[in-house]
Task: structure prediction
Amino acid sequence: MLGLKDILVARQNLGNLVRNTPLRHSFLLSQRVGSEVWLKLENLQRTGAFKVRGAVNRIASLSAEERARGVVAASSGNFSLGVAYAARAMGGVPVSLFMPVNTPASKVDKLREFDVQIFLSGDQYDDTNDACKEYQREHKLAYLDSYDDLLVIAGQGTVGLEIMEELPDAEAILVPIGGGGLLGGICVAAKAMNPQIAIIGVQVEASPSAYLSLKEGSCYERYEAAPTIAEGLAGGFGIVPFRIVKDLIDEVVLVNEEEMRAAVFALLETEQLVVEGSGAVGVAALLFDKVNLKGRKVVAVLSGANIGVDLLFEILKEGLERGGRWALGP
Result:
């Protein structure tokens, strides 16, 4: 279905349009959790999230006629930013974007700097995506799925390539899970390069669609998430990622809202990194002992930085009121 060759081709398509993001060792987090912790800094990626990788690879596959007509995509924000950036960088492809009404203003404000149409529709991603598909059929545009697409997944898989090339002796990778595109790509790339590496998915309790899908063996393509600061991980698990990862992934663990908030604070306090809730779930899993990785070399993928200023201020205020140390575990 998807192989390492596809991800290598995707890397060629990405060229210099995306960053090969740093892989940073964290001494302080390593000391705290008893593992050798490395951080894959996709929060420093162009547009502030890994999603641009899949967007560039998908648009690169379009015909000249499709590009001229334009594209439409649905996203909680980060994929929209990736599509907007890729479309401008690849010749000014017309773009229409659909996002949930509760998308953080920080993401919407960034998008307004691009020449794109923005539609805020639906409280949940699945409803937003339905509206997007209806618009696509009406206007006969190319629809870009944010995770349920092999070309998008191949683009996201370049994160795994970079990790394994820079740290070939890594023993585990912690990957945030929303729709599953990043997870699918990293599973294929990392397992092809080292079949023994453990791939651990991390999802939020408010939206455990991947956890339930893999536990029960039946894909939860739609899921009505509870309120969460990890809007990028809310909603269903893609059927394509499900088919890819079901025989590759080692484990899925869940973190809650307070644990995510603690991880966001910890990353700022210890590493001076701004990371959104969705991107901090791997660190949350380490801080709160959701995984047994003591003494092992671990990579946590920090998938994005696009957190709302108001929410970040709220998390900082809570952390400072507790003297800062509260963020480093129970």
Remarks:
- The radius of gyration is 18 Å.
